[in-house]
Design a protein that fits this description.
mainly alpha; Arc Repressor Mutant, subunit A
């Protein structure tokens, strides 16, 4: 095999992939969240929905889909489950019945106080320094946003 051919095949080595360490790291991080979220009776995906709800309290379903980089058909069962748990209300917009508005309930607001320990616990993990974590988050959002950098205030 010629050197150029070997270099081309080296592109297929797992260690040379960006996708694999991203996938493996995401799995490791999410597994670390699971016992913390189990105490709150939330899945990881329900938790990220709730983080948006704690931030905004009232949000249009389309905006929630965009914030979480999810498909509407993925979000619908999550919202239904969170409504069953009493954390959110789901209503049609009074001005435009095609729009769905999600709002945080009092019980959902109370859950925020119980959930505050989750990011604090994860911050104790020895994986990255604070500066490395900020840079990692910045680079991930750059990938997610097709090369566009986030504004400084968007990525604390």
């Amino acid at each position: 095999m010629k050197k150029n051919e070997q270099q081309i095949y080296d592109l297929l080595l797992l260690k040379n992939q960006l996708c694999f360490p991203t996938y493996a790291a995401a799995n490791k991080i999410i597994r670390r969240y699971q016992p913390l979220l189990k105490e709150l009776d939330l899945t990881y995906t329900q938790y990220v929905v709730m983080m948006v709800m704690w931030e905004k309290e009232v949000v249009n379903e389309k905006d929630l889909v965009n914030s979480l980089y999810l498909q509407a058909n993925t979000l619908a069962p999550l919202l239904k489950k969170l409504k069953q748990k009493g954390y959110i209300n789901i209503n049609k917009d009074n001005k435009d019945k095609r729009n769905i508005v999600i709002s945080l309930t009092e019980q959902g607001k109370e859950l925020k106080d119980k959930a505050v320990h989750v990011p604090l616990a994860l911050a104790q993990e020895p994986w990255l320094t604070v500066e490395e974590a900020k840079e990692y988050r910045r680079l991930l959002y750059k990938i997610i946003n097709d090369g566009k950098e986030l504004e400084d205030e968007d990525c604390n």
